[in-house]
Structure to design on (181 residues):
């Protein structure tokens, strides 16, 4: 029995490699291009999008989503704070390709879109707000979904993120930093 347990992980690895369909490498995941005219990749997030400014969502635009996408989710998280969720927007229509500045909180979201509760405890966008003097990284993610999530508005952001990851068929990222004065 002990020999069988030792071989089991190797057998699982061989079977996983053999499930490539045509024997070739698995298809590469679709990568969506996500950008903001106000936040260049890797740069600092302007204060107006943070707790030190107006605390409104930045403009975002995406392209290259697969035709099969049935909806989108947008997640903003801080990997330097254990994945703290700053924004969990979901069930954006499949034909959406952008959001204007200030879409959240209080802005006009596309029909059918809903917002989860961020880790600040409120629904909508909550901008970067690291401890004073600390620089944190922030990751905006647009996730193409194989189906709308159908969650209730105000669903905890961590639950929205998990549901979006289960239904993800493509993803785009925009990474930036913020340091409070």
């Amino acid at each position: 029995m002990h020999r069988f347990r030792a071989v089991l992980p190797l057998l699982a690895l061989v079977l996983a490699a053999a499930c490539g369909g045509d024997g070739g490498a698995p298809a590469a995941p679709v990568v969506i291009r996500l950008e903001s005219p106000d936040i260049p990749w890797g740069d600092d997030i302007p204060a107006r999008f943070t707790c030190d400014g107006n605390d409104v969502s930045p403009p975002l635009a995406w392209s290259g989503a697969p035709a099969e996408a049935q909806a989108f989710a947008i997640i903003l998280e801080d990997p330097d704070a254990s994945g703290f969720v700053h924004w969990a927007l979901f069930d954006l229509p499949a034909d959406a390709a952008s959001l204007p500045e200030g879409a959240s909180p209080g802005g006009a979201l596309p029909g059918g879109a809903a917002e989860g509760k961020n880790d600040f405890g409120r629904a909508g966008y909550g901008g970067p707000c690291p401890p004073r003097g600390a620089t944190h990284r922030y990751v905006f993610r647009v996730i193409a979904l194989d189906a709308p999530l159908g969650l209730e508005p105000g669903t905890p952001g961590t639950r929205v993120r998990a549901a979006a990851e289960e239904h993800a068929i493509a993803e785009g990222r925009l990474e930036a930093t913020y340091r409070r004065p």
About this structure: Confidence is low (pLDDT under 50) at residues 1-28. The chain has two helices and nine strands. The beta strands are 30-31, 33-35, 60-63, 71-78, 84-93, 98-99, 114-115, 135-145, 168-179. The longest strand covers residues 168-179.
